[in-house]
Amino acid sequence: MFENLTEKLERSFKIIKGQGRITEINVAETLKEVRRALLDADVSYKLAKTFCDEVKRKAIGRNVLTAVRPDQMMIKIVHDELAELMGSSASDINIKGSPGIVLVSGLQGSGKTTFCGKLALYCKSKKGQQVMLVAGDVYRPAAIEQLKVLGGQIQVPVYTEEGVNDPVKIARDAVAAARREGYSLVIVDTAGRLAVDEAMMDEIEAVKKALNPTETLFVVDAMTGQDAVVTAKAFNDRIDFDGVVLTKMDGDTRGGAALSVKAVVNKPIKFISSGEKMETLDVFHPERIADRILGMGDVVSLVEKAQEQYDEQEARKIAKKLARNQFNLWDFYQQIQQIKKMGNIKDLASMIPGVGKAIKDVDIDNNSFKSVEAIILSMTPEERENPGIINGSRRSRIASGSGTAVADVNRLLKQFEGTRKVMKTVASGGMRGMVKKGRRK
């Protein structure tokens, strides 16, 4: 996300690079390009102008330390202003109650039902909640089935009422059932429409009034840009929601919705979602997003993702194996599974400062691991334990069993040996040290 915006902002800062100091002239020239970059990202002209005026006010006359170049100071000012525009700090979801009730609203096709599943998993795994999902979309039978499938994937029950077409009744009954059965959180999916209409608004208002939810969220497709902001305002005027969720952030989005929605509706963006996997839901951190927009990476989020998959006991076991030169192909396979759980490989790599731009046009497919996994799974336990015994005939058999070529098997064995050497070095402090450092923060 934000690739085009990042590239254009980088170009704009080159105008002031090499200048001895910040002046009204070079600031005006830089901000002209910044404004153009924001407009191209589908930010409204009014908001882009207000943003640039504020940056100019803060930049003009700013004393630049001798250790800081004018372009670095300008980047800092723009960074802080971007973070402020998007809400300054992360805003937590309110799930307190007996039970807590989250009402999810949005247009049809915004990814609302998928988000309900993702939020249920997030609250279950990270907040320790006993969650019940409620199928309140009575107009789209596929929505009910979709929610049931998602609930099954994450092992969360889904409340439905066959033959009932009153979403208010379903929602009330669901909350009563959750209270009886000891669930601490109820997440209610509601009907979407192709466009904002009065009947839809009346219905969602009635559901909200009946439930008095602890949290009302509006889900919007980030790829719709300014349309997303207009829709958010229409919903907020009627149901006064508590926060926004931006979905499809991995698509061809220009970032306008993320940059604009907080300023327009004065409600925080609480989550961003990308992809279909249930784990791909992130709390929205304005400062970290500003870092990404300006090509600074997002190491904090990367460490947090590593922490989620990091098993300290398992790490000690691996470290001991590496120290004794006993790290084998099965251990290698399991490490791949841990990396895959962290998310999309290209997204993870782009969180490292400087890497995002370098891999912008590189196609990194998560399926890249498939041939490696197939080769390892085609080996016998003895071969995985002791790769040194894999001779020519064994390599031919493994290649045939995994649907790959002998050259692929040879390449994997060579890469494994290289990886084992690197990991032996890392084991003395690398990722474990980084994760512990993240925890201390």
Brief account:
The chain has 441 residues and is of the alpha/beta class. Strands 3-2-4-1-5-6-7-8 form an 8-stranded mixed beta sheet, with helices on both faces. Helix 4 packs across helix 11, helix 5 runs parallel beside helix 6 and helix 12 crosses helix 21.
Secondary-structure map with pairings?
Elements: H1 3-13, H2 24-40, H3 45-59, H4 70-85, E1 100-106, H5 112-126, E2 131-136, H6 141-154, E3 158-159, H7 167-181, E4 185-190, H8 198-211, E5 215-221, H9 226-239, E6 243-247, H10 256-265, E7 269-273, E8 281-283, H11 286-293, H12 299-309, H13 312-323, H14 329-341, H15 345-350, H16 355-358, H17 370-377, H18 381-385, H19 392-402, H20 406-426, H21 430-440
Parallel strand pairs: 1-4, 1-5, 2-3, 2-4, 5-6, 6-7
Antiparallel strand pairs: 7-8
Helix pairs in contact: 1-2, 2-3, 3-4, 4-11, 5-6, 7-8, 9-10, 12-21, 17-19, 19-20
Overview of the structural elements:
Strands 3-2-4-1-5-6-7-8 form an eight-stranded mixed sheet, sandwiched between helices. It has helices at 3-13, 24-40, 45-59, 70-85, 112-126, 141-154, 167-181, 198-211, 226-239, 256-265, 286-293, 299-309, 312-323, 329-341, 345-350, 355-358, 370-377, 381-385, 392-402, 406-426, 430-440; strands spanning 100-106, 131-136, 158-159, 185-190, 215-221, 243-247, 269-273, 281-283. It contains 21 helices and eight strands. The chain is an alpha/beta fold.
Order of helices and strands: HHHHEHEHEHEHEHEHEEHHHHHHHHHHH
Largest sheet: 8 strands, mixed
Based on secondary structure, the structural category is alpha/beta
Major β-sheet strand ordering: 3-2-4-1-5-6-7-8
Work out the helicity level: 55-70%
